[in-house]
Amino acid sequence: MQVLRDVLEKAQRDGVGVGHFNIGDFVILKAVFASAQDLKVPVLVGVSEGERKFLGTRQIAALVKSLRDEFDFPIFLNADHTHSLASAIEAAKAGFDSIVFDLSALPFEQNIRQTKEAIEALKGINPAILIEGEIGDIGTGSEIHDAAPDLSKGLTSPEEAKQYVDATGVDILAPAVGNMHGMLASMVQGTTKKHLDIARIAQIKSATGVFMTLHGGSGTEDEDFRKAIAAGINVVHINTELRVAWRRGLERGLANHPNEVVPYKILPDAFEAIKQVATSRLKLFNSTK
């Protein structure tokens, strides 16, 4: 079975992106996995600290491993936006394939120092685990926002990206390149789209040479995704789009079965809504028709 580094190296050679989807429950995991199986492409699923608290860190790790082993399929698990070393160690010991050690809210030098210390500790637990670091400001919360925050002052420069990567030794870098966590109401309605700083992505890739992740991908213009992957993005995070699909699918299931109380008879609508979104994104990232 491939390890995550092998998958990312192949994606980089092939000029495609690996889709990363946050999973807040089993329905989302099941739909994302089914999408990846149908398309025969690798997939990353992620759980934030809040999602891990809800699902159980060891429990979700065991569930994803069972899917990978039973179906001999390249599905990988990421500990998304981890803000403490204790939480990161818990994920590493549970068998996660990667960890986003996110100290981007701290001063730059402090981010560097603590990230370097975390990498040493986490690689001691599992040398194959990939550690992702984040610099810049992409906002917080994969939810629906009333207004867009001003993130222009928090964009990542190629110079600070190189300094950060060289000093910490991170395997993957998450920069701020015009991306934003969550979506605006207008994006949910489809009337506006996010746009990325493609030139900045290419400059950061050239300066650092490491794998790069695009966080906050929900609501981004399709062509921007294509250009971002061509410029050096290797992993694309989608979360809010799946949450919106989950909510709409669940509401449809409840409306279609107003007297039903059996979950597995109500939830297929949510499953199908999520799968449709995941499939469209995986096709786009992998240049699949």
From TrEMBL:
Binding-site list for Zn(2+) 1: 81, 181, 215
Cofactor(s) for this UniProt protein: Zn(2+)
Coiled-coil ranges per UniProt: none
UniProt keyword list: Metal-binding, Zinc
Binding site for Zn(2+) 2: 102, 134
Matches recorded under InterPro entries: Aldolase_TIM (IPR013785), Class_II_FBP_aldolase (IPR050246), FBA_II (IPR000771)
Active site: 80
Pfam families referenced in this protein's UniProt entry, alphabetically: F_bP_aldolase
SUPFAM superfamilies referenced in this protein's UniProt entry, alphabetically: Aldolase (SSF51569)
GO molecular function terms attached to this record: aldehyde-lyase activity; zinc ion binding
Cofactor: how and how many bound: Binds 2 Zn(2+) ions per subunit. One is catalytic and the other provides a structural contribution.
Gene Ontology biological process terms in this record: carbohydrate metabolic process
Bilayer-crossing regions: none
Organism classification: Bacteria, Pseudomonadati, Acidobacteriota, Terriglobia, Terriglobales
Protein name per the record: Fructose-bisphosphate aldolase class II
